[in-house]
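FYI - complex with NAP, inputs then prediction.
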Amino acid sequence: MVSRTIPVETFDLVLFGATGDLARRKILPSLYRRFHAGQVPEDARIIGAARSDLTDDAFRKDIRAAIDEFVSKAKRDGPTIDAFVERCSYIAIDAKGDGGWSELKSAVRDEAIKAFYFSVAPSLFGPLAAKLRENGIACENSRLVVEKPFGTDLETAKTLNADLAASFDEHQIYRIDHFLGKETVQNLMAVRFANVLFEPLWNERYIDHVQITVAETVGVGGRGSYYDTSGAMRDMVQNHLMQLLCLTAMEPPTRFDPDMLRDEKLKVIKALDPVPAEDVVRGQYKADGKEPSYREDAENEDSLTESFVALKVGISNWRWKHTPFYLRTGKRMTRRLSEIVVQFKETPHSIFERDGGSKANALTIRLQPDEGMDLSVTIKEPGPGGMRLVNVPLDMTFADALGAEDEIPDAYERLIMDVIRGNQTLFMRGDEVEAAWAWTDPIIDAWEERRDRPHAYAQGSVGPEEALMLLHRDGRRWRDLEGGS
Ligand code: NAP
């Protein structure tokens, strides 16, 4: 399938934190891929900024190295890379200092869209936003992109929102959650709201429960001391899993309009029930002989921070009153997998009881690996052996259905182009982030007050036993992480 690439308007993108890990691994390679695809105009400018004293040439050399490492060979061609790095320059700026701002002011054009990407620690968001305003660099058509974490609790999120609001209007602020840039996540909305098939069944009458899993095989090594101040609940549930829950549970917005969609997500967050202690399981991975334990990775032998969390979440509204959402996420698990499983109910009566019976349908929305969806349906096994029933997936792996995997753009590519287009649909609004913290805070406060010890789990497992019990006690089971039923 040939993808349509519509060039965006010309822009100046100022990347604060241009020498950092995220810029190198994701942001700069994504900009290059869009340039290679013909979406970035020839006269667009990318201006890197950080404290390090770099020349333009040294910055360009770093960008070439990042492209070499993170862009597939098929998209790396000499003349395109030369033309791309030609668009890039560098200015040394300390977010809290006075140097470099006048240089930056003259480097950006008034007539171009100006995007300021804060790929830096959140403590610098306020100072950077203020400097841009004080120095007259930001204007009406400026956009501001901020990375996670957006706060560590409601209080800090409110402060960040207020700091940004002092210099930028809400319609200029793009809070990134890269899960929202995934092809599958947008397809979840397309499947729900552009087909007549699912929406009538999308409620507590037909859906038994929903499972949302984000499992990682990596540990926290390398950033253990930072992670130890956060944990799985703050690092993953409050943002990524919450966003997936919202898109699965929300009502259809009247139009596919940024604020209408975000209004619907906000209503879901506000309808979430408080989570009692017995509906939360936290875990920490153990040492396994070769690999260190969580506590060793975090360099904190008394750490009570969770590297795994599973929760049962209720939504108090008409659509979902009796349909629980089970969420789980963890490090050092058996497989890297992010998916939403919508488990439908059994048929009210099975006429095939003697023949193996029918199995309940499940719609699986896979974010990684192999972005795609499948719907399990019960059919008759082929052959003359009578009415034997089997459960098979109707598979729609996007790479198979729509072209090579390489054609599915990285979430960052879509999100950065959306910033330039001025489309906030896939970005979190300030009130949404605050509402998510308002729900998360009491859960964290409760276990911190009790000084709950996380359960130990083996590396390469599906998390602690207790997480399995969370579903077993309700007569349900987690979907096999290895892809089984
Ligand atoms: P990083 O590798 O530590 O990079 C931080 C960047 O900020 C560097 O370019 C650093 O350059 C610059 N910086 C630090 N202090 C500065 C100051 N006072 N003024 C101007 N620039 C300053 O961090 P990162 O991993 O790229 O992450 C950046 C942000 O994205 C963080 O908020 C992080 O939580 C978030 N994030 C990262 C990832 C990821 O995969 N890395 C994923 C999601 C979100 P100098 O030292 O040269 O100033």
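The longest strand covers residues 207-215. The two ends are 31 Å apart (CA to CA).
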